[in-house]
Amino acid sequence: MTSPESPSGAGPHYRALEALYRSAPVNALFESSLEILAEGRSRIEFLVTPEAYHAAGAAHGTIYFKMLDDAAFYAANTLITDRFLLTTSFNLHFTKPVREGKVTAEGRWISGRRRVLVAEARLVDAEGEEIGRGTGTFMRSRIALSSLAGYRPDQA
């Protein structure tokens, strides 16, 4: 694995991916932050609040999907420096309901480097218990990372 600060240029790519995450308008709706840990690894810290609850008083499944998809996506996109990836499928499993508090999404690349990549993620609550997991497939898009306003490796 490449360290985030390796001379290969991975560090600027990782920091630019973190900036891209922060720049996405949807992320203004959630208190969250992304950290690229190494090639193929990401972590998102996320605060679940009552605004994300379903009628029975726990986080709605859309929150699980958002955290799992983002963590897996960014883990996979660490391996691709020229193109934005697109989620083509995602399977998720709910293990435990979550209410208010910090949740950590841990993403890990599994396979693929060319056209299609596979990555997984798991959600851990503030007590350290797994509350969900998912696996996604991601495909290179025609969208150049360099064309996205939030992605700036030269400023990382």
UniProtKB/TrEMBL annotation:
Signal sequence interval, chain numbering: none
One Pfam family recorded for the sequence: 4HBT
Alphabetic keyword roster: Hydrolase
Keyword match Mitochondrion: no
Keyword Hydrolase attributed: yes
Domain Thioesterase: 57-130
Organism domain of life: Bacteria
GO molecular function annotation: acyl-CoA hydrolase activity
Name of the molecule in the record: PaaI family thioesterase
Species, as recorded: Pelagerythrobacter rhizovicinus
